[in-house]
Specification:
By secondary structure, the protein is α/β, with parallel strands linked by helices. It is built from seven helices and seven strands. Strands 3-2-1-4-5-7-6 form a seven-stranded mixed beta sheet. Strand 4, helix 5 and strand 5 form a beta-alpha-beta unit. It starts with a helix and ends with a strand. The structure holds S-adenosylmethionine (SAM).
């Protein structure tokens, strides 16, 4: 499992990385801003690939009533997150998201933030998580997308120069939107983050 070792190694400097730390913090800020702006009500959240739990820490501060299931395959990431967050309303799971099983309608919100590119098949991934989300629930996705030539070059640089991750598959925003809409979701928000990433919120009908 080369990704696990890679993320274990990254965990120690994930929050304080000079360049990418800003990007990730900006993502969390945008999520909280949009949730407030759109008056999105959530209670029972699944965060797939939660990393060091920085988003969770900020969400509990803003929305103390919520419950979060935070999953990551890196035990080092989860260790940092669990040391950071002492809250009875969070459950940490160390596992590969591909191995997870939840009951239908377990969550009203699912976050897939900055890790969709680790799931090679959008179809298989979406089919897996779709039953877990209640109707009228929200699916939040942030990821770099190779939508045009410049973004494709960005994705190439992210893969080969900046992050040097293995098993990475960047997708196209429109392709993702099309596939999620086919599963009877409505797109309620779409904008860019740091030019190369898209921030998308879908609502399950
Ligand atoms: C770039 S970090 C993003 C962390 C957090 N979501 C954020 O936006 O700051 C990607 C995270 O996804 C996790 N991850 C990657 N593939 C995964 C998988 N198949 N199952 C669970 N977690 C995974 C990694 O361990 C890592 O912590």
């Amino acid at each position: 499992m080369q990704n696990k070792e890679y993320f274990d190694h990254w965990a120690e400097h994930y929050d304080n990385n000079i360049l990418w730390g800003h990007y990730f913090k900006y993502c969390y800020k945008q999520i909280i801003r949009i949730v407030k702006e759109k008056n999105i009500k959530f209670f029972n959240i699944l965060d797939l690939g939660c990393g060091t739990g920085e988003l969770e820490r900020q969400l509990f501060f803003q929305f103390p009533h919520i419950e979060i299931t935070a999953v990551d395959l890196s035990d080092k990431m989860i260790n940092i997150a669990s040391n950071k967050i002492k809250n009875k309303n969070i459950k940490f799971i160390i596992d590969d998201a591909n191995n997870l099983h939840f009951f239908e309608n377990s969550f009203d919100t699912i976050f897939v933030l900055n890790n969709l590119h680790h799931f090679p098949s959008l179809e298989i991934f979406l089919e897996k998580i779709n039953p877990w989300l209640k109707s009228n629930g929200y699916l939040f996705i942030i990821d770099p997308f190779k939508d045009n030539l410049i973004k494709t070059i960005w994705c190439f640089l992210l893969k080969h120069l900046f992050f040097r991750e293995k098993n990475v598959h960047y997708h196209k925003t429109q392709e993702l939107i099309f596939k999620i809409q086919n599963l009877k979701y409505s797109l309620i928000k779409s904008n860019s983050i740091y030019y190369f990433s898209s921030f998308l919120i879908f609502r399950k009908n």
